[in-house]
């Protein structure tokens, strides 16, 4: 009998590096961290040991990569997405969500998807995994966190053009983002009293209004309000001085205002070990912090470190919730 429930790993884009990463993660982790792969077993690398299962509880890493078969039509050509696979990729994610919510799996870890391939092949109407998972579960607001041993950072706005960020950055959005992050650090990371740092939107955090008023009109009053409630939070801080080692030592997570303001520092500091975590869902979800890498798919060159870290983080989050 296994000491813990296995983690569900959705296949992601079959023409990308997801299938070979699944094999490499299994080779690295073995029975120390049980997971099962939801996908078409024919998409795994040639010669990959496979254990076909009917239920997650049957997963036994000693017998090969545990695979919950999810057949997809049409041929697979590494590096070239097949439109006929798109709906199967979407359904594999939904299947993983159902298994986690039913208590058959500890958490969901998602291999990278190719958003254009899903849009072209199945009319996928979501900007990415994060938004799709929120829609699947009817969750009104979720938060995307990028996490590693060196930094945890959250973008308040995610997959929107930079020109749309100021209008999207509302009081309700920022307040929800901070509260969900704070609660997630307590529940999923075991931090009893989280320390948060909030960036400004503009250069030099607006420099007293000379470079924009979002800090004065929105961010600073909201931070002061949360401080009055007892939250350990500081800001708005200039984003260009928030991410050096001494600054990072003063907080448990940083809240940034837009996508690149958050992702550039973590990908610079810890590119291979960064993990994408979705906070606010009714279950644990992690993902490697990289894309499908179609240019190297099928060549055995893919680095599994981020996926391994995503699986490990999901296991730790499950232990924290327990």
From TrEMBL:
Something else known: The active site is located at the dimer interface.
Catalytic activity entry: 4-(phosphooxy)-L-threonine + NAD(+) = 3-amino-2-oxopropyl phosphate + CO2 + NADH
Subcellular localization: Cytoplasm
Higher taxonomy: Bacteria, Pseudomonadati, Pseudomonadota, Alphaproteobacteria, Rhodobacterales
Domain of life per record: Bacteria
GO molecular function, one term: 4-hydroxythreonine-4-phosphate dehydrogenase activity
Pfam families, sorted: PdxA
Name of the protein in question: 4-hydroxythreonine-4-phosphate dehydrogenase
Keywords assigned by UniProt, alphabetized: Cobalt, Cytoplasm, Magnesium, Metal-binding, NAD, NADP, Oxidoreductase, Pyridoxine biosynthesis, Zinc
List of residues binding substrate: 129-130, 267, 276, 285
